[in-house]
Amino acid sequence: MKRKAILLMALAILLLLAVAGCSNETENAVTEAALEAENTAEALDETSEETELTAEAELTADSLLAADSLLAAMQENMENASSMTMDMSFTMDMTIDGERVVTAMDYAYQVTSDPEAAYVSAIVTYEADFEEESMATTTETYVVLEDGVYVTYSGVDGDWYKMEIELDADLMESYTMLDMTTGCTLAGETQKVNDTECFVLTCQIQGDDLQTLMDEMGLSNLTGDMDYSALTVEETIWLDQETLLPVQATIDFGDSLTAMMEASIGLTGEDGVEFSMEPCVITASYTGFNNVDEITVPDEVIESAASYDELYESYSSDYELTLNENGTYLLEDGYTEGGVNLATPAGHTIDESSSDSTWICFNADPDNDEYAYVFYSLYTDFTAEDMEYIYGDSFEDYADYYDDAVITELQTVTIDGQNVTYVAVICSYDDDSQEMEFYAWTEISENVFLLIGGVDYAYGREIQIYSDLPGLLKTLIDAIQ
């Protein structure tokens, strides 16, 4: 009788589905599921335990059929909706060797289907035990159709940028978080969410689809270059049992993301680095349908927005590397009057394949067992504090991975009257092979810094070419004309 009661409950839910106004195809599927549930319930009264096990399997099949019907009805109703509003949140809470780092993203969406348009506001917050203050960034984005082309207007701290984009789906579908589910089943009981009685569907999202979803929502920036292909996560969807529209959805990563993050940053049990991460859950709350009249881009945004393409073209053309007739090279950044002239450092040749419009690279003349190179680049409108902030602790994490890593303290020396600040590391990376890296910078005019970086790899022996860093820095500074 207990199993019969369960089946009757499933039957009642399915009948409610039919009353709620599904399409003909959906209604037929639901009715078939209901009839099978009824037949199964009758059979349970008259059959043995073996038949009860068979009925249990049929109930699972009915749950799958009902879930498919619900998803079809939901999709149809959403396609017919003129607009949608949704809030979405995601938090990544990690602890590395006792230091906690928390990154949270909160989005608010407004989307309309005719005309297609969207407005998204986002707040990204970052807190870390080793930072004195938390950081928060607020962004706004409008997505509209202009002459048949999707255009985004993105604003950060009052600066707006415009760019054309391509979308594989309409905006409503792109922002729902519900179009990549597989293997959904329907729960035997409804649940209340925000005072709304809901059907509960439990579904799966496979790795490749999960990667696409993370990219679309901008969450890949938090997890880095991770391979989601082998990962399957659970998504739960709560549907309003009267309107068959979504009320809430969650994607639960469980503990699977922890292992992926460990692999992504190269941690193993032998590293001695303690790493933990709270289970990650993406939560989407669908706050309304057919409740947005129109989304328009404010005139002041349109008037002030700079084109991404124009900015990129301007940026690319601003940086120039020119070979002078006397064999020196002029490195310009479009901001520094006159740029800076560089000669080939002693013992080096220019690397045409590595040099580009933003930097110039020179290879040391190597033998078969050692390879070394240096590069020069310009930083305009920077201060000494800015350069130290960017490059001062570049090699601190080497001590975590190399037992013999020797890191120089940040120091400043005077070479030919030029103050040069540098930091470097030398370590063994493969038995008796060595690696040396360094960054050095010097102010060549007010708030204009020339950055010099270098790497030396020695295979099966100790570093030789760049073993004398002070001497090397003098050679590199002498190359400034």
Compute the average pLDDT.
76
Query: Share of helix among residues?
Result: 25-40%
Q: Any idea what the shape is?
A: elongated
| Class by alpha and beta content | alpha+beta
What distance lies between the first and last C-alpha atoms, to the nearest angstrom?
A: 94 Å
- Summarize the biggest pleated sheet: 14 strands, mixed
Number of helices: 12
Low-confidence stretches: 1-61, 311-318
Kindly estimate the percentage of residues that lie in beta strands according to DSSP: 35-45%
Q: How many beta-strand runs?
A: 25
Radius of gyration based on Cα positions? 31 Å
What does this 3D model show about the protein?
The chain has 481 residues and is α+β, with helices and mostly antiparallel strands. The chain contains twelve helices and 25 strands. The protein has helices at residues 2-19, 24-46, 49-80, 171-174, 207-216, 220-223, 256-264, 299-304, 308-318, 384-391, 398-401, 469-478; strands spanning 83-96, 99-113, 116-128, 135-146, 149-156, 159-165, 182-186, 191-193, 196-205, 233-240, 246-254, 275-277, 280-289, 306-307, 320-323, 329-332, 340-342, 348-350, 359-364, 370-380, 406-407, 411-415, 418-430, 433-445, 448-458. The strands form three sheets. Strands 1, 2, 3, 4, 5, 6, 7, 8, 9, 10, 11, 12, 13 and 14 form a 14-stranded mixed beta sheet that branches. Strands 18, 19, 20, 21, 22, 23, 24 and 25 form an eight-stranded antiparallel beta sheet that branches. A three-stranded antiparallel beta sheet has the order 15-16-17. β10 and β11 (246-254) form a beta hairpin. It starts with a helix and ends with a helix. Residues 1-61 and 311-318 have low confidence and may be disordered.
